[in-house]
Amino acid sequence: MPETGPRTPDPRGHDEPRVTSSPIPGAEHPTTRLPAAPRPEHAPDTRPVPAESVHAEPVHSAPPQPAQPERAEGAPLAGPSHAGPSSARARKAKARQGRNPMLLWLKEIATVVVIAVVLSFLIKTFLFRAFYIPSESMMNTLDVNDRIFVNLLVPEPIALERGDVVVFRDTKGWLVPSAVKPAGPLTGVQDALTFVGLLPDNSEQHLVKRVIGLPGDHVVCCDGSGRLTVNGAPLNEKYVNSAEVPQVRDFDVVVPAGKVWVMGDNRNHSADSRAHMESNGGFIDVADIEGKAAVIAWPLNRITSLDNYPDVFRGVPAPVKK
């Protein structure tokens, strides 16, 4: 029934809407709704889309960002560590501002020198060492005053080969004892630079020769043509100084184990194994060999690598074991 009279105030002092029995305008009774017309199989769907199906996911609004406080004057800037005045780079730059440029330059020079000395010492100890050539015994391969670099990896771990030019210590007394040189104001500096490898060793206690016979080899001078033979094979020695015809000095030796037979390329001016056969048979100990001469480093017009002439010894057979 429709409401015909005035509403009575709610005794609690609130007006509440009353529910009436009148139908909602525009609504249809479920029993009076007509069946919907059949839709074509491919007809587009024209029904309105419910409002809640428009968005597949709920939309969240971004939370409000807190207001950034104003940076006080002199406060560090926000950001990565390298961007502010408190970064390591900034601290280094600030520390340098109060230093003397000359002291900084000297410090850098000292650092470079120390690194160079350490590297030179390591190279001289394990890889290469410089030597000075004082005599003509190896001409024309080596000249007087040549500076050479010696490969310290020979004879160990790299094995000796026939034809190698080697530097060895004079433990057999081949050299005449040299007079003691008076110490000068730079003697200590020269010794230190020689020790670390920045100067060549000119102590005159080393010799340089070419290896002709290895342990077990049978070396003979000479055949009918004046040539050396090693294990019966004649040698065509291309490295011998061609300015003079070598003098023939007869010898017939078998190189003992742990020793080698050496000769100079300038045969007529070399006091080598031939000249010291009365002492230790003329052999030198492999243990006395400092290394193999690899290159001529000075003077500049003579810079070259040193050859061991493998073709000269290619035809030499292995020694006969006894």
List the helices and strands and how they pair.
Blueprint (H helix, E strand, L loop, with lengths): L87 H10 L3 H26 L1 E5 L14 E5 L13 E5 L17 H10 L9 E8 L4 E4 L6 E3 L2 E2 L16 E4 L4 E5 L20 E2 L3 E10 L5 E2 L17
Antiparallel strand pairs: 1-2, 2-11, 3-4, 3-11, 4-9, 5-6, 5-8, 6-7, 9-10, 11-12
Tell me about this structure:
The protein is an alpha+beta fold and 322 residues long. The chain is built from three helices and twelve strands, in the order ααβββαβββββββββ. The protein has helices spanning 88-97, 101-126, 187-196, and strands at residues 128-132, 147-151, 165-169, 206-213, 218-221, 228-230, 233-234, 251-254, 259-263, 284-285, 289-298, 304-305. The strands form two sheets. Strands 1, 2, 3, 4, 9, 10, 11 and 12 form an eight-stranded antiparallel beta sheet that branches. A four-stranded antiparallel beta sheet has the order 7-6-5-8, with no helix packed on it. The longest helix is centred in the middle third of the chain and has 26 residues, at 101-126. The chain starts with 87 loop residues before the first helix and ends in a 17-residue tail after the last strand. Residues 1-36 and 49-61 have low confidence and may be disordered.
